Amino acid sequence: MSDEEHHFESKADAGASKTYPQQAGTIRKNGYIVIKGRPCKVVEVSTSKTGKHGHAKCHFVAIDIFNGKKLEDIVPSSHNCDVPHVNRTDYQLIDISEDGFVSLLTDNGNTKDDLRLPTDESLLSQIKSGFDDGKDLVVSVMSAMGEEQICGLKDIGPKN
Q: pTM of the full predicted structure?
């Protein structure tokens, strides 16, 4: 054995992996799946009958949860698919910077300054107008596979 000590830098949570395997036949509409390396929400599932080569096939139509692109995949129903670990976290909005980054307040009192404003026009205008009106806003941040994006907004009333 070597005398050297190995130090591993780890920024993963307890789940360590970004995805987990799940049998294709058990994935349902409104569930999540990884297609072409992108985390997606399933909008349609159809299953074909078993063919002469023995596997029923699942046809997934899904929408990328970060960029809204529609993706499709066909997988034998007995095979495993990758399913992303998807988390939603609510943060209070503190500030919006000139360059499009937001400053958010975490549960433990720290600030999170590494997120951009969403690209979705209606959500973007709601956040900006609510912030300009001096309202207390809470944004929902969805994270999966090392990506994060603001995906929702709640108004918790005017600032005191």
A: 0.77
Do 134 and 73 meet the contact criterion of CB atoms below 8 Å apart?
A: no
Tokens standing for residue 123: 């959500």
Contact indicator for 72, 60 with CB cutoff of 8 Å? yes
Are 118 and 127 within 8 A, CB to CB?
yes
Residues 104-127 have pLDDT tens digits of 988 888 888 888 888 778 888 888
Long-range contacts of 123-132 (CB under 8 A, 24+ apart): 123/150, 123/151, 123/152, 123/153, 126/153, 127/93, 127/96, 127/102, 127/153, 128/96, 130/155, 131/93, 131/96
- Condensed to tens digits (0 to 9), the pLDDT of residues 24-47 reads 999 999 999 999 999 999 999 999
What CA–CA distance (Å, rounded) separates 148 from 136? 22
Residue with tokens 């830098």: 9
**What φ, ψ does residue 35 adopt, rounded to 5°?**
-125, 130
Q: In residues, how long is the chain?
A: 160
For residue 39, give the nearest of 121, 122, 148, 145 by alpha carbon.
Answer: 145
